[in-house]
Amino acid sequence: MFGSLLSELQVSTFILSHTNRNMAEGSAGTKPAKKLVEIDIISDTVCPWCFVGKRNLDKAVEASNGRYDFRIRWHPYQLNPNAPKEGLEKRKYYEQKFGSDMSAKMGNRMSEIFRSHGLEYDLSGLTGNTLDSHRLIYFAGQQDLAKQHDLVGELFLGYFTQAKYIGDREYLLECARKVGVDGAAEFLEDPNNGLNEVKEDLKKYSDNINGVPHFLINNGKQALSGAQPPEIFLKAFEVVTK
Question: How many CB atoms within 10 Å of residue 166?
């Protein structure tokens, strides 16, 4: 697990350093500017396919071998906006929503997919309302998009592989500290901070889609739904930069 976490952090560092380096080279005139690939991702922090989609995207960015500059932004979606803030047992919630047999099949399928990424899917712990996590993601993006990207990865990793609760304030702050988001405690203390911005983003990006993850590349020149494999992302990068 620690190897997988290190790998994810290395990929995120690659994205940031790769983009900054290319910008510097372009401004110095030593090399032509790389073509920009902007990716807007609509996602919920309790969606396992969103985590898989992020990891596949990161692999595609790394596999592009410096051909592009990337600007990646995360936007909110709520699979269950009425979920309680105090949380409820994850297994019980899925069994009530999908039935015992279907819930078991879904869990087995996700376990297989997570193992293919070197991770163990953990269905223990709580699930619940994701609003505060989206407020924090918004706040991180105001500081630095690379930090926002790293934060989303940390939130996913803890929730899906370590039984962390996405509505736990201390867990949110722990993730913020890991990726260097400053002032997160003060920001989350006031429940109105970032609330209007998240609601506006929900309306702008979530109203016209039926599920997540959803990827809008270069202002929707390419739109991808679901946890697409890296090669599909690579092909989309080519298409939008022609």
Answer: 27
- CA 234 to CA 236: how far, in whole Å? 5
3 is written with which tokens?
């190897």
In this model, does residue 119 exceed pLDDT 70? yes
Between strands 214-217 and 35-43, the pairing is antiparallel
pTM score, two decimals? 0.87
Q: Tell me: the pLDDT tens digits for 84-99?
A: 999 999 999 999 999 9
Cis status, amide bond into 213, omega within 30 of 0? yes
User: For residue 73, what are the β-bridge partners?
Assistant: 40
CB 131 within 8 A of CB 201: no
In the three-class reduction of DSSP (H, G, I as helix; E, B as strand; rest coil), residue 71 is classed as: strand
> pLDDT tens for residues 133-151?
999 999 999 999 999 999 9
**Which positions ≥6 away from 137 have C-beta within 8 Å?**
45, 74, 76, 148, 151, 152, 155
